[in-house]
Amino acid sequence: MEEQEKSLSRRQKVKRVLTPVVFFVLIPLLLALGVWAFGDRSYNLIAAAVALLACVPFFVSFERRQKTSREIMVIAVMTGISVLGRFVFAPLPGFKPVTAVVIIAAISLGGEAGFIIGALSAIVSNIYFGQGPWTPFQMFSWGALGFLAGLAAKITVPDKEGGRISVMEKRWALIVAGIVGGALYSMLMDVWTVLAAEGTFGLPRYWAAVAAALPWVIVYAASNIVFLLLLTKPFVKKLERIKIKYEIFTIK
Amino acid sequence: MRKTKESKGNKGDLDFAEKRTANALYKKRAGVTESFHPVILLVYFVGMAAVTMVTLHPVLLGVSFIGAVFCTGMLTGMRKLLKSLAYSIPMLAVIAVINPMFVHKGETILFFYNNNPVTLEAILYGAAAALMIVAVFYWFKCYSIVMTSDKVIYLFGRILPRLSLVLSMTLGFVPKLKKQYKKISAAQKSMGMYASNSVTDRVLSRFRVLSALVGWALESSVETADSMSAKGYGLRGRSSYATYSWTRRDLFILVFVLLALGVLTAGMSLGAGVGFYPAFKGISAGLWDIVAYAGIAVLGLFAGLMELWENIKWRLFVSKV
Q1: Most buried of A100, A197, A223, B202 (most Cβ within 10 A)?
Q2: If you average pLDDT over residues A167-192, what whole number do you get?
Q3: Which of B13, B131, B170 is the mutation pick for testing A, counting most A CBs within 10 A?
């Protein structure tokens, strides 16, 4: 028990130091380097590097955390499911269950696992669907959505019997999550679109890209809502069962 | 992992996915570049993509584009290359046209569109940006052909062991899950479900199968995890096996690639400047410009030429026997 606490505090220490280092030192340094070395012309490379760096604190804390092989395996399975989902629904354009599966996994397994599942889903599914400079953006977008969903699931609301349940068990919360997920994913990916087409970043161009992507946002949001409403209950039930049966993911 | 069996008789739900996987995984693997150490592949291809991403110089982009397409052609074969060019060339044209619609800077006005001037400079800028995107696209294509997942795991397994483990597990799970998905789907069909032709029914069937799959996968994965623990996963002092050895050739190639990258970077930061507005200026031939051109020519064509040379050697060897 004591040992566990010790490792917990060390983990927190590392996390506490590393996250600010990445966010407040490395990323500005990279931005400065971009301006200084390439004369402000290389937003796209710098942005891809920043997106990748933004994933680092999550990766490191995943490495440092005490995890059993069972927990690792469950994370791998959920990543596999989200990749398979992209295959299963590939004939329908824009109808990707990845966001939904990441959100559902995060609801049950926590934000950190959610980030890892989201980021790895991007890497693995792009092995089949095409790797590119957009991969870091997808990694961060899906990862961040997973992390946010994990945080949101901790908010509790009173239920009918007077107890408290996670807000994510409510239907309206899932609908909101689906819309936010679709919009956030599309808007983060539009940063890449603008950088790719322009080489530099301009707000008017960005809003134009966001407006042009609006039909896609609607498709994403609609498909997210469909997936979340249909899959959350059975998936969460199965994940909760595994969690109780094998005593995993108990510390959140 | 790579030997996903293709079911030929069963026109199941996953035919599409199957085809995509087959395309992704059964790429023609003829290349000598593949036999380079993974570190070299990472440095070379990521380096080329990065160099391409930071410049808008038409000469540098042109050479980089030719190098990338050349290398892709050598790795995938002519037919596949032409197929992908049939997609990417129109894409290039579309991106080039978008820019002048937004940007009206530049002194050479060609014509007016919606009362806005369309300038030559804006078109040139759009063309350069488009060339950059397509060149980077092809560099990444080469990268994903030669950088197989086992090499990725070999490279990052020491820095991020747990993440690499999840990655390799997931890569193993995808074909396994796909197989099981088909089994569940077939079982449900044989029970008489989804007999109707309605689209909603067919879409909903996928949800039901996916849900059943999750239950199966979670349960069986825990068994795998226990077996891993029993074999001592995560204990201190366990070594891992890798087939990649560092040879003298690798050392030469790495030194060569790093030198060329250094020369190219120097050339690019001291010369090879480019400006589009108000008037295009870029193609000059100062000392550092020529250094940059030479650097990108040597580095950009390196992988493709290595492949070509190996092909020629192979042909000569075969004809002698």
Answers
A1: A100
A2: 85
A3: B170
For chain B, what's the residue count?
321
Question: In the structure, what pLDDT confidence band is assigned to residue A252 with cuts at 50, 70 and 90?
Answer: very low
For residue A53, give the nearest of A32, A29, A77 by alpha carbon.
A29
Angstrom distances, CA of residue A247 to CA of A51, A240, A250, B287: 34, 10, 6, 67
| The predicted structure's pLDDT at residue B297 | 92
State the ipTM, two decimals. 0.79
Contact A70 B222 (CB under 8 A): yes
| Residue spans per domain, chain B | 30-171+248-320
Q: Do B177 and A42 touch (CB under 8 A)?
A: no
Q: Which residue has the higher pLDDT, B141 or A166?
A: B141
pLDDT, mean over chain B: 80
Question: Of B13, B21, B225, which has the smallest distance from its Cβ to A88's Cβ?
Answer: B13
- Answer yes or no: do A74 and B144 touch at CB < 8 A: no
Alpha-carbon gap, residue B145 to A131, rounded angstroms: 10
Give domain limits for chain A.
Answer: 65-246
The pLDDT of residue A168 is above 80: no
Beta bridge partners of A165: A157
| Reported confidence tier of residue A21, pLDDT bands at 50, 70, 90 | low
**Which residue, chain included where needed, has tokens 């044209």?**
B93
B-contacting residues in A 172-211 (Cβ below 8 Å): 196-199, 204-205, 208
Handedness of CA B312, B317, B320, B321 (dihedral sign): negative
Q: B166-175 b/e with 16+ CB inside 10 Å = b?
A: bbbbbbebbb
Alpha-carbon distance of B64 to B96, in angstroms, equals 18
What is the nearest CA distance from A162 to chain B, expressed in angstroms?
A: 30
In chain B, % of residues over pLDDT 90? 16
If you count residue pairs, one on A and one on B, with CB atoms under 8 Å apart, how many are there? 172
Chain B CB contacts of A77 below 8 Å: 173, 214, 217-218, 221
Residues 6+ apart with CB under 8 A from A124: A79, A80, A83, B167, B170, B171, B174
Q: Which of B31-40, B100-109, B136-145, B165-174 has the lowest mean pLDDT?
A: B100-109
- Which residue among A45, A76, A92 sits closest to B50, beta carbon to beta carbon? A45
Residues in CB range of B129: below 8 A, 6 or more apart: A196, A197, A198, A199, B56, B95, B96, B99
Our CA-based measurement puts residue B289 at a distance from the nearest CA of chain A, in whole angstroms, of 15
